[in-house]
Amino acid sequence: MIVIFGVFLLTLLVITAIAIVRTDNLFVAVMLMGIASLLIAGNFFILDAADVALTEAAVGAGISTVLFLSALALTSERERSKSSRRVLSFTVVAAAALVLIYATFDKPRLGDPQAPVQTHVAPWYLENTPKYIDIPNVVTAVLGSFRGYDTLGEVFVVFTAGIGVLFLLGIGATPGALPKEQDNEGLRHYLIPRLVGRLVIPFILLFGLYVQFHGEYGPGGGFQAGAIVAAGIVLFALIEGERRALAVLPQRLLLGFMAAGPLIYGSVGIAGIMLGGNFLDYSPLSSDPVKGQHLGILLIEIGVGITVTGVLLSIFHAFAARGR
Amino acid sequence: MTTLIDILSWVLLTLGGISVLIGGIGALRMPDLYTRMHAASVTDSMGATLVLVGIMLQAGWSLATIKLIAILLFLLFTSPTSSNALASAALLAGTRPLAESKQDRGGAQ
């Protein structure tokens, strides 16, 4: 049954990908990319990777679409006419596709118990998570503690990406450059989205916090929560005007958020060294090693969530300020 | 009783699936944006509601049902709002409904 669903979703994904390549209208391409993300998220979900599915849905289908649309507002909706080097690019793409297809012949069958992924380190994580960390969601244990270095790297990637975009677009709204009140009302004159938005935004933020703090028990964690909270505030900026959104969370605070995540994460790691363990070893943080692991994972997840929120909102405001 | 609930649930799921199918055909076949949106709204309102209620009957009284009710409420609030926003944005951008523009032409002659 899973195979049928998987083949169905992947077929739709291929159709969507071909449509993205073939369309000239960039607006259509952005919408199709949102659909593609949602299809991948569905596929991840039927493969029981709920955490990855939630990330893909929140980041790929949700916030990236918004960022692409704000980028599109700065440029034209039509793709420029194709250059004459189509044969060359087609050859490169075809060769890469053939290599990838050839590589899949070595892949083990779906769900093969002898596959390296089932026999290498995964059994150790599954056996030892209850002993060392004692949280139900093994994904969070692996992500936060066993492979804490990788996640630290990811946080720095998000941070660096944010800095890169801000270098290109400028830091955005400085207080003097804010537009007049009437220029920047958002949709405040338009009653229905405003009312429903006001009704929905508190629940979006609440759901973001739930995903943040429930990551140890169910699918979720800092990356997803950061994207959801950022989406809630982007919705606020759209219906109430960017000025009000910047009054709630000023740009300076968002820049602080961007830097706070790596700082919190690194500090938790160094605190581990100070208290007599290794870098990113959370066990010494409390008298009980398991409690220490809980505390460490909670702190680094908060750091991740704060950075993701800060980076996404800074990028959004930078695009919006550029559009004026 | 269990069989009855099961049958009811599958009837609702099937009707929901049919509604989604009708909405999809309508969105492809209707002549202009507003009638297409009208067809697509069948997917949002009837399709999603029937399917979700069908799954609720399968889930019984559990946490899953409460989550499904929350999803249903969220959809019932947001999908009409987004339809309204889309239609009004189209109207602002100058897309006239087909029937009205025909009438206008008829009046001018």
Radius of gyration of chain B: 18 Å
Query: Pair with the most extensive interface?
Result: A-B, 7 and 7 residues
- Count of discrete domains of chain B: 1
Number of helices of chain B: 4
Main sheet of chain A? none
User: What's the end-to-end separation of chain A, in Å?
Assistant: 51 Å
Count of discrete domains of chain A: 2
Residues in helix, % of chain A: over 70%
The class by helix and strand makeup of chain B works out as mainly alpha
Give the biggest sheet of chain B: none
Give me the number of helical elements of chain A: 13
- Overall pLDDT level of chain B: 86
Got a strand count of chain B? 0
User: Level of helix content of chain B?
Assistant: over 70%
The chain-level structural class of chain A is mainly alpha
The overall average pLDDT of chain A, rounded, is 87
Q: Keywords, please?
A:
heterodimer; A: about 325 residues; mainly alpha; Four Helix Bundle (Hemerythrin (Met), subunit A); 2 domains; 13 helices; about 75% helix; about 0% strand; globular; B: about 110 residues; 4 helices; elongated
Please outline what is shown here.
The complex is a heterodimer of chains A (324) and B (109). Chain A is mainly α and 324 residues long.
What does this structure look like?
The complex is a heterodimer of chains A (324) and B (109). By secondary structure, chain A is mostly helical. Chain A contains 13 helices and no strands. In chain A, α2 (26-46) runs antiparallel to α3 (50-72), α3 (50-72) packs parallel to α10 and α3 runs parallel beside α13. The relative contact order of chain A is 0.12. In chain B, α1 (2-29) runs antiparallel to α2 (33-59) and α2 packs antiparallel against α3 (63-92). Chain B has 4 helices and no strands. Chain B has helices at 2-29, 33-59, 63-92, 98-108. By secondary structure, chain B is mainly α. Classes of the chains: A mainly alpha (324), B mainly alpha (109). Chain A binds chain B through residues 190, 192-193, 196, 199-200, 203, and chain B through 74, 77-78, 81, 84-85, 88.
